[in-house]
Amino acid sequence: MPRLLRDRQSLPARDELPWWLSPVPTTIENLGFRLVWLVVAINLVGTAFGFWYYRAQFAATPTEMWLFVPDSPMATLFIAGAFALWAVGRANDTLTTLAFFSNIKLGLWTPWVLVVFAEEFLAFTPLPLYAFLLVSHLAMVVQAFVLHRITDFPVRAVSLAVLWYTVDLTVDYFIPLVGEPHHTAIPLARETPIALAATAFQLAAWAAVVLTILPLLWALATRVRTLEANRSFDR
Fold first, then answer.
1. Which of 138, 180, 221, 224 has its CA 20 to 30 A from that of 57?
2. Which of 70, 72, 77 is nearest to 95 (CA)?
3. Where are the transmembrane segments (predicted)?
4. pTM score of the predicted model
């Protein structure tokens, strides 16, 4: 256990941010950083499971578009890499920002579709697996909110993350380039009306658009608040 736990003095400083930018309690953040290699391992296991989970969609997707299929596994791979690089003293702002965007976006999008299409998912998904998918994706959001301690979200890194997730959003829902849209499969026909005349496809796409914008706002707000706090400290 002593080898697994990092020393408290090695932890990154915690920014003084409002609760809506830093909602995870300090004790939980500290524990995550002290157990960083366990966190990395859990995310890598989740990545492997995610690629297995997407196996049918890979088989139905042209090879050249495979990069746009495993959204959640890529998110856990990004954050595993971000934490691992920090742990070895080589934190990377771009990878950390990609991890923030992806874990917020997929960590909220997946629970959204699981709840909105719950009846359809539960028709072929065992309840324990359904609950695991719901809880594990929400946990992705929790870990995303500790990343402010290892990056200040520089504009270049945010710009690259926005570019990547704009392209991803485009081929997933609007201009697939090759074959059909490449979004994560939903368990009913895309044109099925669900609520307020919106179809299943529209509800999935709407959430994806909103959840591409939301992490951008959080990242930029975190950067602004951090810079303001640093200026106040310098005075």
1. 138
2. 77
3. 35-54, 66-88, 95-117, 129-148, 155-175, 195-221
4. 0.94
